[in-house]
Amino acid sequence: MAIFVLKDTSVTVNSIDLTSYVTNVELVQAVDSVEATTMSSTSVNAHQFIGGIQNNMVTISFNQDFATSKVHATLTALVGVQTTVVVKPTSAAVGATNPNFTITNCLMNEYRPVTGAVGDLATVGSISFAGGLYTAPIA
Amino acid sequence: MATYKVTSELVAGKSLGDTITDDELQGSSIEALINAGHIEPTTKTTKKAEAE
Q: Could A73 and B37 be called an inter-chain contact, meaning their C-beta atoms sit closer than 8 Å?
C-alpha cells in the first residue's frame, strides 16, 4: 500500500461499528518510561530509561445521534466499563497493509454527550479510551 | 455458550435479527450492549417447558 488519504477508516467500539459517525481518530501505542538511572562514576551524565508497561490511548470524535441504539446509547453505556476498540485504516479486508489495530480492556472514564456552540453540528467531544493491551493482527 | 439476538444495525459483522455468541463478543461488554439495545438474550426452551 502506498501513502493514502484517510477516507473510510473503520472504527468499532464494543463490537459496534460506529464508522459512519467518526470524524477523527487517533490511536497511540505507548509504554511508560521507567527511570533506571544508577549511581556510577563512569556513566554519562544523563537519565536512563527502560520501557515499562503499555500505556495506550485511542481518542475518537463522533457526530452525535440520540436515536435508539446509535452513538449516544452505545457510548453512555460504556462509561467506566472496560471494552475493546478496533481501528482499521480502511474498510478493506484485514491484511499486512490494513492491520486490525486492537486495544482490549481499555476504559472510557468520561463522555460528553452534548458539545458545541450555536450553529454547530451536534458532536460528541473527543473521547478517549485509555489503557488496555495493544495488538495489530493482520489476519 | 450464551447466545444473543442482534437488535440493531450497528453490530459489527452482523445484521438485524442475526444470532451472536458470547465467544464472538469476547472483549466487549455484553451488559453495555444489552443496555444500549444492540443485543438481547435469547431465551432457551427447557425440556420441562416443552413437556408442558
A: yes
- Cα–Cα nearest to A19, from A110, A89, A107, A97: A89
| Of A17, A76, A104, Cβ closest to residue B12 | A17
For B31, the enclosing helix (H) or strand (E) is: helix B30-35
Contact in structure between A18 and A70 (CB atoms under 8 Å)? no
Strands B3-6 and B19-21: antiparallel
Summarised one tens digit per residue, pLDDT across range A111-138 is: 999 999 999 999 998 999 999 999 998 8
Q: A116 to chain B nearest CA, in Å?
A: 24
Where chain B has pLDDT below 70, the residues are: 44-52
CATH 2.40.30 fits A10-32+46-135, yes or no: yes
Q: Does the pLDDT value for residue A44 go beyond 80? A: no
The domain limits of chain B are 3-51
CA Rg value for chain A: 19
